[in-house]
What does this fold into?
Amino acid sequence: MFRLAEDEGLINRMGFNNEGVEAALQRLKKNKGVLIGGNIGKNKNTPNDQAVEDYLICFDALFPYVDYFVVNVSSPNTPNLRALQDKEPLTHLLKTLKEHNQKKETPRPILLKIAPDLSEDQLLDIIDIVKSIKIDGVIATNTTLNREGLVSENKDQLGGLSGKPLAHRSTEVIRFLSEKSNHAFPIIGVGGIHSAQDAIDKLKAGASLVQLYTGFVYEGPALVKRINKALRTQKINQNN
It folds into this structure.
């Protein structure tokens, strides 16, 4: 992981760095009631034509311990993972998971996490797939491979870029998905939220919720309080 201080961003090439689903389960079993999302993906060495099996294994193992699932097909650090965003493999993956989920006694919400680097045609495909399969929403967006406008020393490091440089593009994707789908599904907005105004911009673009990652590094945990305070004040002003 590389800090881009002048750009207030991070570049990471860690991939799905963890000890595996069984190790995660041991920690999740100790959860004291915190809302947990299970972010699932394929293993680095699993061919894409066998990727669905990896997702199903993670889905079943995590199911009793998570409140919702994130189908991650957009990490730039897992070889060929982003190819699963193409219409045919993505439709197959989400349809399989949706049907598997419906067999459970208490199905979990399923959300799709997408890359910010998709074209408008690809985003239209995403809308069609989400609406037709009727999964529960989209997380927009993951990290980007774009390096335009960066000035920091580490700007040319390989990996996914997060933080302020991603803010505008992720908001564009949120707005496109929201408007072109006619607000057909919830969107969780992610990417470059370093202030209360950044969060408000995502919500105005069509997000229902927001998530923070790199903003915590540069702004600290008090950022959450500032966002909530601003949203509460704005709501009061709107009511007036």
Summary: The helical segments are 21-28, 51-62, 87-102, 120-133, 167-180, 196-205, 214-219, 222-239. The longest strand covers residues 68-72. Residues 222-239 form the longest helix (18 residues).
